Predict the structure of Endonuclease III.
Amino acid sequence: MTKQEKVDFVIKTLKDLYPTIPIPLDHKDPYTLLIAVLMSAQSTDVRVNQITPLLFEKADNPYDMVKLTVDDIREIIKPVGLSPMKSKGIHGLSKILIEKHDGKVPKTYEELEELPAVGHKTAAVVLSQAFGIPAFPVDTHIHRLMYRWGLSNGKNVVQTEKDAKRLFPKELWNDLHLQIIWYGREYSPARGWNLDNDIITKTIGRKSVINDYMKTKKS
């Protein structure tokens, strides 16, 4: 199989499996998505979706958020982990949105990444899911699968993002990044992985990955 044939196989398989694509983090607008994505760092979407309603009940826009203290925010979001850093980020970025952006979430990487606690991946998720701007946010699932499928060298997430953008058509980036995440969770997890259930890796996977899997299965 050529690399292009592998890419086409991935696109078709994911489209068949996920014709409609659920959005992992509950939100109602760009601001609530930005806050939810920030909270999801080193946490799970399930946990974040349990906590965001408690926070958004008190403040679901930057103007109400800055009325809360950093300690108020930290107390509410404590269960998602890293709450001291995240609460400062949420309060700080809300203040900047009011001062610099009329309370609105900006639509560029540069402006988003200037906000406290907002890195490249968070910015990419917001651009993609809130504004429909083509982006390819790379999380651990995408990084792992792009390597397993022989579509990236696994060096780092920056390289994986470059490879994904180079290989996949731009108009599919927003769908594909979510489809790959769902596929990784359901069929190709890091732990408890069963190759028999993982049709994509079984069909196009990197030989060394499949060989390693077979060795561990035998031992």
